[in-house]
């Protein structure tokens, strides 16, 4: 009886304790419902809780800049992750005996290109940009080398920010990170078109060149306030060459470099017969390539929406939806076109390239077109990438193992042309210093299409010439191509010193994995 009484008393005290403790716990929580968080007490003020009007507006400005900066950094991180997607697509679409070599190029282009961009690429591209309006308004990037011809100024490259010196500003550093990973995307594209026969030492030299001078100069002309951006202000051609997220600056540049590199290095052994007819050289891991394509599609949500450079720009939702719709119609169009008109099979490799082609094509116009137009742009790109790939392989006799030229080069150009045709005038007021929104030919402004064509042509000419010079210099000094016997045996051991698939013996003729 005594034990039962003690248990009852203990139970009563326990219930009282739980109730009292729960009440005290609830009262001690800062704000479990979220109704009290973010009040005037959180505003920095000389007198806590009673901020002045100036202190309130100052806090609003800091918050807006912080939102923009965090947005740019996070989307930059997404773009950096795209490198994993490129590595998987390229390795999967090439042969197993070269897996370590292909993966290593995709890995090392990141630090190589970054170092070049850090040394001088960023300065050449953005040294004359002017104020970074969305990230604090820093205006220390104010030295552009320009020439004056016929009363017009032609900006050619920036001269401020080498080694990021004299630009020690949070806005500049956020811009550097975001733009660096864009450069990295450009730099990795030729690793696909030149895969399976590119000497690694030659690749290293190329990697340094692309980040220092090849990419940044054209980037300055379009995004750094250079002469292409000023075609509207100086010559009345729309808003100048407009490229929202890089169809020309990133993808066409990489595609042209991929084209020049593939021409100079030549086709893989066994790709073409004596009569010039091509032989198929299948990739070794289609599942890997498909996963890589999904990683790229995911990273593109950093690529395109991040190019607003402002998390407070609500156009982000339009950009994101346009991006995903174009990727879907690109993949769908490529699948049907292969299935119905080419091989009578849907072909997963072309599904991949259709998806990527849609993403590349929508990259320039994603902020300036409606979603129905985005679907059309992607659908056209899905067909265009197939016809371009077959033309490059069969007519031009250029060996591009992963279709990089067709995906990035051809559809990078198409994306810019699409902007010049379909920009609907609902966005872009003040772009490149021109009042009014960006409109294309079908909405009453043929000048915008002319500016896009000039930009595409300038890219092909400049990147083609500088790319040819760089690849030729490498060729006559250390050589671009590996020895024939190494190419036949696989590049993993002779070039990298390790096998991509240790413990698996490969038949060098069929490359069928054989268990030991």
Write the layout of secondary structure elements.
Elements: H1 2-28, H2 53-92, H3 99-126, E1 144-149, E2 152-158, H4 170-188, H5 190-193, H6 200-223, H7 231-235, H8 247-265, H9 286-303, H10 316-342, H11 348-363, H12 371-395, H13 404-422, H14 446-477, H15 484-489, H16 492-496, E3 505-506, E4 513-514
Antiparallel strand pairs: 1-2, 3-4
Helix pairs in contact: 2-3, 2-4, 2-9, 3-4, 3-6, 4-6, 4-8, 6-14, 8-13, 8-14, 9-11, 10-11, 10-12, 11-12, 11-13, 12-13, 13-14
Describe, in plain words, how this protein is organized in 3D.
The protein is mainly alpha-helical and 516 residues long. The protein has a domain at 56-95 and 229-496: Ammonium transporter fold (Orthogonal Bundle). Helix content is 61%, strand content 3%. A two-stranded antiparallel sheet has the order 1-2. A two-stranded antiparallel sheet has the order 3-4. Helix 8 runs antiparallel to helix 13 (404-422). The termini are far apart.
Q: What's the short version?
A:
The protein has a domain at 56-95 and 229-496: Ammonium transporter fold (Orthogonal Bundle), CATH 1.10.3430. The protein is built from 16 helices and 4 strands. It has helices spanning 2-28, 53-92, 99-126, 170-188, 190-193, 200-223, 231-235, 247-265, 286-303, 316-342, 348-363, 371-395, 404-422, 446-477, 484-489, 492-496; strands spanning 144-149, 152-158, 505-506, 513-514.
